[in-house]
Amino acid sequence: MSITLKASSPEVDPKTLRKVIFAASFGNFVEWFDFAAYGFLATILTREFFPSNDPAVGLLKTFAVFAVAFAFRPLGGIFFGVVGDRIGRKRTLALTILMMAGATTLIGLLPTYAAIGVFAPILLTVLRCVQGFSAGGEYAGACAYVMEHAPQHKRARYGSFLPISTFSSFALAAVVAYALDASLSAEAMSAWGWRVPFLAAAPTGLIGLYLRMNLSETPAFRALEGEHKVAHAPLRDTLRTQAAGILKLGAFISVTAVSFYMFTTYFATHLQVAGGLDRATSLLITVIALLFAAALCPLAGLYSDWAGRRKTMLTACVILIATVYPSFSLVGSGHFSPSVIGVCLLAIGAVLANVVTPPLLSEVFPTRTRYTASATTFNLAFTVFGGTAPLVATWLITTTGNNMSPALYLVAIAVMGLIGGLMLPETAKISLHDAGTALPGASAAAELKSVPRPAAQSLRC
Q1: Could you tell me if 215 and 33 are in contact, meaning their C-beta atoms sit under 8 angstroms apart?
Q2: Dist CA 381 CA 52 (whole Å)
Q3: Whole-number Å distance between alpha carbons of 243 and 389
Q4: Among 217, 235, 247, which Cα is nearest to 368's?
Q5: What is the residue-wise DSSP string for 152-192?
Q6: Nearest 5°: phi and psi at 426?
Q7: Are 404 and 328 spatial neighbours (Cβ–Cβ below 8 Å)?
Q8: Rg, Å, the chain Cα set
Q9: Of 357, 352, 348, nearest in space to 300 by CA
């Protein structure tokens, strides 16, 4: 039985669309700047909170806290996903940015190990967990918010502004860390300089909160409210109907996670440990690569809308597999120009994976449980693979003595992600109203049931 009746997607006027993209992207920028600051200040935080006679052990502890924070992301994803599917995207996104900004500001106010001993790393870990809980509801919610406003055939193009804001936030965090390193003495940096990026969360978070509170709810969620179809048990519905999509899409998002944190966070440390470059030079190289990645995002969005999601996933994984070994070799060369080329090489595949992820998160799952399903998928993948990427990379090098060992890990993840991604149907041209019905197991009866009544068609997205 074929279903031919399709719900038309209402066009959002350009002014509203620009406002939506700016507010979602700025809030996402603030959230990930707060989160990125920890990674770029890892070596300093090691000295202040995890003093050790062995620098490698201290660094492992610092990255372990980085990974522990990710353990709370699935919990945050489930919590905020359920809230977002019940009360709406707008109010939930306002809550995530408020929580992240508050936790980050408190990190900037923490006393160090020298002042309060073991309580310092304990408090740091608790606040990192709050950050992770908040981040669990941020990206998937921002993706849903933008995608539910974006034109049907340009979702990747408009969704690319979210990874642009993410890469830009990491770039700014690296610039701030670089500027502090370049302008302050080692004593001043240890005394108060490292606190500056964390304390900046207070004013920027308030701006992001104001922008999000002045937005309207998405057309798709308003339609559900108008028809009294808002999910009462989004988590139960998600687990019962979307398990296959979560597993397949999660396999691909693991590629997004590992490639992202390899080149945005871990490489800043790898340039120093394997390449022997000083901290300031390593941060400068990372900034160049992040700006390159941000500039590449719109092109990747255009490519994904033209080629489709499956071909974009294939392209991303193949590029990562082909470039990871040359990338690590160049990054470990100890020279500026080859290192820049090496980080940018890895960025190409990472950008394609990150740009195709926002539309996939919305196209694979139905509106009724979109926030819960996408947040669960995204955060499980980023917790298991993304948050542990710097820790695994550091451990592999420490255990094997081979600076190239993390490259093999990324290749294995790319192969797994490619298999999972290609098991998904093509979703680039579907209406978000039909999202979730193309997965194996979705019956024609379910599709027919989801077709809106004529009186409600003008509200559907």
Answers
A1: no
A2: 32
A3: 25
A4: 235
A5: GGGHHHHHTHHHHHHHHHHHHHHHHHHHHHHHS-HHHHHHT
A6: -70, 130
A7: yes
A8: 22
A9: 352
| pLDDT tens track, the chain, 461 positions | 333 334 444 567 788 888 899 988 988 898 788 777 776 777 788 778 877 665 666 666 666 776 677 788 899 999 999 998 888 888 899 999 999 899 989 999 999 888 888 888 888 888 988 988 998 898 899 999 999 888 888 999 999 999 999 999 988 987 888 788 788 888 888 889 889 989 988 998 899 889 888 888 888 888 777 776 676 667 888 888 888 999 999 999 999 999 998 888 788 778 888 888 887 788 889 889 999 999 999 999 999 999 999 999 999 999 999 999 999 999 888 899 999 999 999 999 999 999 999 999 999 998 888 999 999 999 999 888 887 787 788 788 888 888 888 889 999 999 999 999 999 999 988 887 766 655 554 433 333 344 444 433 333 33
What letter represents residue 99's amino acid? M
- Kindly report the pTM of this predicted structure: 0.82
Indicate the residue type of 328.
F
Q: In this structure, are residues 280 and 407 in contact, taking their beta carbons and an 8 Å threshold?
A: no
The two tokens of residue 73 are: 């992301």
